[in-house]
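the two lines:
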Amino acid sequence: MIGGIVAGLLTLMVFSYLIGANPLWRIAQSLLVGVSVGYVTLVVLTQVIAPQVGRIVQPAPGTPASDSWLALVPIVLGLLLLMRLAFPGAWPASFGLNLVVVVGASLALAGALAGTIVPQSLDTMRLLNFNNPAALVGDIVLLLGVICGLAYFTFSAKPDGQRHALIKPLAGAGRWVLILTFGALLGSLATTFYAALIERLDFLSHLVGF
Amino acid sequence: MDIICPKCGTLNKDASRFCARCGEDLPHDGESAQENATPHESARSLDLPWLQTVQDRAVKQTGRLAEPQANKTPEPPPALSPSAASTPAQRQPEDVHILAPEAALPSSQQQEDEPSIDADPSKPTGDPNEPPPGWVLGILEPDATPTPNPDQPYEPEELAHIMPWAHPQPGTEQPPTPEDTTSPGLPPWLSGVTVQETLATSTASPDKTVDPIDLGIDDIEPFMPPEVAEQPTEEGAADIAPAQVPEWLRSLSSTRDKAEQAAQLSSQTNLHEVPVQAPEPEIVAEPVARHTPVRPPRAGAVETLFALVQPLTVDTTQPGVRIPSTITSLDLRAQKARSRPLDWLLPDGIIYIAILAVLLSVLLIRPPFGDVTAPAAPGAQEFYSAIKDSPSDKPVLVVYDWDATRSAEMSVLSQAVMRQLMSSRRRFVTISTNPQGPGFAEQITRNARERYGYVYERDYLVLGYLPGNEAALNALVNNFNQSLPRDYIYNRNVNGSRLIGGGQLRGIDSFGLIIALTSEEAELRNLIEQVGTRTNVPIVAAVPQGLEPLARPYLQVQHAGIKAILSGLTGALQYNRQLDLQYGATAQPSGTLSLTDRLNTQSVAQLLLALIILAGLVRIGMKKILRR
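prediction for all of em together
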């Protein structure tokens, strides 16, 4: 009951932003940020750091000694990362962060190539199915949309500042393709936001007693 | 033929002019009769006209050189030789004063004087009874009336006007001034000028008698820059300056001397006076006026600036009046608060109120829009089929990657997925790469397990948060057991559970299906790129309505794609319909809005928003038409 009332009050405080920034809205915003950060910190401590320390302090029976020493590595890197507070420019303090960034970037690159770029490129080059008119139209629209969209991002121009005669109409069409795409995305996002608003209004109405 | 020095008797060469031993002038042919060469003759060998003139006057004055001048024609003075060059110290005072009047006098008068000096070479010179020239009489007898020079073309009155310092007005009695006695032929402003001095000297005091012979050169010390001390003090600077600064420079710095000099200059009315600008007593630095071209202001800039600094007055008749956020003056803020309700109302406030009113009315009143009777969408059917057709002996991996911002849609989708899994008695394990995911996983599974009799650690596990994004998913594929060794609810080692223990789950390939409940495009893409490309386990996704356009390109892509996509409340409704058909309809919890009502409300809100957008477009179009 109390939780419901507090949730209702916080919801109304957030809705007060409709009339402009006010202290109530700022209080709700601060509470959200603070609770989110505290919750995430607690999850990280209990789900990430504590088990890692436990592997060193109290390893599971049967685990080799090398596993304990290996578990010490991320803890040392984490402690080095904390040194950035005192020594921002020292390289040992950023060693762990650099390692994470480099490894993450390499994995992301490999995954992007294997999971997005190559498969999407192959999927774009579809064979036209003349037996199914709907699929045929869809494939043609897909092909033209990809070509026009890529043509829009060719910013090279001749000395007179104009694009090539063949690129110019494709770039114009690609601009409209992008406009329609972003419009569809915005419309979908509006649907998501409406769903959230309706759910909150339903909660408030039931809280009030309707 | 060698020449014998008359002084020391040294034998010198014929071409020598001076003795190599003693430096005595050597007599040459034609000069042997005149061992003591007169300066006059030596001067003639020089090329200095002024020196020749001085020498001639000296000869005339002293009568020293008694030589016939008849045979001698006036020659240009020869060049100066080192021996004959007279140093400034040795120069006769008459020479100086001879030069000064010549410099002051016009050239015509100077030319008249020159013939008078060199006139009549046949006239014998050196007569002791010859009266001295007039200028000597002026020096010796200043009170005497100067004899009129028959050669002088000017009348006394004219001379008095031309040279008042030398020729007073006839009939006027002017006591001789010290300046007049010292240099009768010179104007007062040239009385103290010497050859060495280039600037005016300090004025002579009334008691000081200026010696015309004294050039004042000895008193002039060579200018030495003052020594700069490490810590110069005012006293030190004051002590140094007077000792080293010469008089002529000291007078320059004295404004009083300059004022007196200016007063002396002002008394002169001679046309031949050299204009000397009197220095001002105080040097005032005038501000430099620079006239730089100023670009005219842009059109409307002045009016805009004026309007910004003026207190705002809200005009309610003009819609869309907004106060710029950059204005922070207190007065404007106060007026902003007073006129804020009206500003907010038009037009944003009306739109907000309209949407809220419509939504609340639909939620509360629940108009009879009717129920959705259309068949399930192909996407919902494929999603259902993917879960149904997965190996029943293998558990399902459910990825909870959504947060509270998308809980309105994702909670409904997650409940529907849990409903099918639990209804079909499928074991499942939940993980999260989002920190908020384990909490929602635990909440939804706890609400559903009681209905279907699921037991934790036997039928399902909530493994918790997996940090690291791409690296975490890569580690999950490589070593699933070590990635999440403990569960989220009880924080116990999962190896001891019946679901994972006993070697049932050796890796990611031990799962029969991966269900991605993601609310962000990056999380879905990471899952596809890091897990989907490295395993043959099929992936299905349940996403919000806004994420569907971004997730659809991965649909049905070979080797790296998802099998089915379920999006938004519409997909959840259709998916639940399919479940109702399969497993029977479930009772809706009391106090909650049904999916149908939510969709109806959402549809009305979307329709209202579309009408508002159309109205705005029409208004813009009408404005453009009327403007034309």
